[in-house]
Amino acid sequence: MKILAILLTTIIAVALSVNKSNAQDNEQSAAQANNPLANMTALNFHDYYVAKLSNAESGSYMNTGWIRFAKPFAKGKLLLRASAPLSTMSIQQTYNGTVTNTTSNGLGDVKCFRFLQFYF
How far apart are CA 60 and CA 102, in angstroms? Predict the structure, then answer.
């Protein structure tokens, strides 16, 4: 019984110490992931959905998906970043009691820029 108690205490102590170091690593990773100038290659996907548009009928919506890519060059001194939106907009309209949905979608303006980072 004592051996079981010692074993359980050891397992719990190891689990808590590993969990604490993982939490610190996760905080550092999250800070690095949220930094737009981070020295890491990244491919991100974002989706922005608007379920109700102002001054439009109830069935109208807008959905925009973003694809973002970032790649460091020259040992982290240069960072290339590109973003491309894919948008869909659906407008519901009623004419003489007939409901019609007009949907349009397509690729938006692709943005590509380069950062030069200065180290002091």
Answer: 9
- The Cα 115–Cα 79 span in angstroms is 5
- Whole-model pTM: value is 0.57
Q: Indicate if the alpha-carbon torsion angle 94, 95, 100, 102 is positive or negative.
A: negative
Cα-based distances in Å from 72 to 1, 36, 68, 92, 109: 57, 11, 14, 44, 22
C-alpha separations of 30 from 16, 22, 41, 66, 96 in Å: 21, 12, 14, 20, 53
- What is the tens place of the pLDDT at every residue in 28-75? 766 666 666 667 788 888 999 888 877 877 888 889 999 988 888 877
71 closest CA partner among 41, 45, 44, 43: 41
Q: How far apart are CA 3 and CA 21, in angstroms?
A: 27
Closest to 112 (Cα-Cα) out of 85, 65, 80, 87: 80
